[in-house]
Write a structure and sequence with these properties.
This protein is an alpha+beta fold and 321 residues long. The protein folds into two domains: 22-179, Ribosomal Protein S5, domain 2 (2-Layer Sandwich); 185-310, 2-Layer Sandwich (Alpha-Beta Plaits). It has ten helices and twelve strands. Strands 1, 2, 3, 4, 5, 6, 8 and 12 form an eight-stranded mixed β-sheet that branches. Strands 9-10-7-11 form a four-stranded antiparallel β-sheet, sandwiched between helices. Strand 9 (269-272) and strand 10 (279-283) form a beta hairpin. The two termini are 30 Å apart. The structure holds cytidine-5'-monophosphate (C5P). Residues 43-45, 47, 154-156, 171-172, 198-199, 202 line the site of cytidine-5'-monophosphate.
C-alpha cells in the first residue's frame, strides 16, 4: 500500500485516467538573471532568478503497466541511470504517494536536452512525468498542486510545470509568473562536450566568495525585469547576468573562449546557463541566431550549437497523445 500525503481519496474529482499512451513535451530552461545569496542551513542558496523556458524539448511517454519502469533514447542514452535515482521515476513515485495510488506506469523518454548542462534536463523530465502520470492515472491535479510535489523533487522542477518566463525565489522553487506583452526572444545554445555538476558549481562559488571581506548581497532582478518589459533585445542583452558564471568559468576555463566567440559572431550577449557548462547567446532575430549557431559550430568552440526561442509553455500533453 502506498501512503497518501496529499488529498488522496478525500476529493471526489473523476479518476478515470487515459487508456492510451500519454505523450508530454517539456522544454529546457535558461536563467536570464541568477542572483545567488548565501548558503542556507538546509544546504541550498537563497536565489532571485528569472527563468525562461526555451524550445529545446524532451518528450516523455507514459503507458499503462503493472510496475514502474523507465526506458530512454537520445541525448545521454547509456549514461543516464534509469533506476530509482532517476528524477522521472522519483516524480512518478511522489505523485503516487501524494494521491495514494500505486505507481504503475511504463515511462519512455526521448531526450534532446543535454545532461548536466545547466538547462534543467533532469528537472524537465520530472515535470513531464508528473504531468503524464497525472493524466494516465486520472488524478487530475491542478498545476499548482503538481508544483507543490515538484518542489520536493528539485529547485527547477516547479518552473518546468508552468514554463513561460517567471521569477524564482526561495531556493528557486517558488514561482511567480512574469506577465509581459508577448515577445519572442531568439537564443543560440552552445552545448559543451562534458557536463558540470550543479552542487560543484555552487560549492566553487562559495569557495570564491570566501575570499571576499563580506558576502555579497542577493542581487535582485529589477533591471532584467525592466528590460523584458522594454522588449528591446539589445537592452535585454545588457541586463543578462548569472552569479554562477564565475564558478562555471573557474571549473571550465575553456568556456571563456566559447563566450567570446559568440559575441564576436554577433550575439548581443552571452552567458553561462545556470550552473553550466552550456552557454546561451541572445540574438537580434531568428536569422541571426541561425548564422551565429553556424559560426560557433565552424569555430569548434562547442560540441553543438542549436537555435531556440522563448518563452514557451512548460510540460504539456502533446498532439497525438
Ligand atoms: O534542487 P536541486 O536538487 O536541483 O539542487 C541540486 C544541488 O544544487 C543542491 O543539492 C545544492 O547543492 C545546489 N543548490 C544550491 N542552491 C540552490 C539550488 C541548488 O546550493 N538554490
Amino acid at each position: 500500500m502506498t501512503e497518501a500525503w496529499g488529498p488522496g481519496g478525500e476529493d471526489d474529482r473523476p479518476r478515470r485516467g487515459l487508456p492510451g499512451p500519454v505523450r508530454v513535451r517539456v522544454p529546457a530552461k535558461v536563467n536570464l538573471h541568477l542572483g545567488v545569496g548565501p548558503l542556507r542551513e538546509d544546504g541550498y542558496h537563497e536565489l532571485n532568478t528569472v527563468y525562461q523556458a526555451i524550445s529545446i524539448y524532451d518528450e516523455l511517454t507514459a503507458r499503462r503497466g503493472d510496475t514502474l519502469t523507465l526506458t530512454m533514447e537520445g541525448e545521454g542514452a547509456g549514461e543516464l541511470a534509469l533506476d530509482e535515482s532517476n528524477l522521472a521515476i522519483r516524480a512518478a513515485r511522489a505523485l503516487a504517494a501524494y494521491t495514494g495510488r500505486p505507481a504503475h506506469a511504463r515511462l519512455h523518454l526521448r531526450k534532446q536536452i543535454p545532461l548536466a548542462g545547466g538547462l534543467a534536463g533532469g528537472s524537465a523530465d520530472a515535470a513531464a512525468a508528473l504531468v503524464a502520470c497525472d493524466a494516465l492515472w486520472g488524478t487530475d491535479l491542478s498545476r499548482d498542486e503538481l508544483a507543490v510535489i515538484a518542489a520536493r523533487l528539485g529547485s527547477d522542477v516547479p518552473f518546468l510545470v508552468y514554463g513561460g518566463t517567471a521569477l524564482g525565489t526561495g531556493h528557486g522553487e517558488t514561482i511567480s509568473p512574469i506577465l509581459a506583452r508577448p515577445t519572442t526572444w531568439h537564443w543560440v545554445v552552445a552545448v559543451a562536450d562534458e557536463g558540470l555538476s550543479t552542487p560543484a558549481a555552487y560549492a566553487e562559488l562559495d569557495r570564491l566568495r570566501a575570499e571576499y571581506a563580506a558576502p555579497p548581497p542577493l542581487r535582485n532582478a529589477d533591471a532584467l525585469l525592466a528590460a523584458l518589459r522594454g522588449r528591446d533585445p539589445a537592452r535585454l542583452g545588457r541586463a543578462l547576468g548569472n552569479d554562477l558564471q564565475a564558478a562555471a568559468l573557474a571549473l571550465r576555463p575553456a568556456l571563456a573562449t566559447t563566450l567570446k566567440a559568440g559575441e564576436a559572431a554577433g550575439a548581443l550577449a552571452g552567458i553561462v546557463s545556470g550552473s553550466g557548462p552550456t552557454c546561451v547567446f541572445l540574438a537580434p532575430d531568428a536569422a541571426e541566431a541561425e548564422r551565429i549557431a553556424a559560426e560557433l559550430e565552424t569555430a569548434g568552440v562547442c560540441r553543438a550549437a542549436r537555435t531556440a526561442h522563448g518563452p514557451v509553455p512548460g510540460a504539456r500533453i502533446g498532439a497525438g497523445a
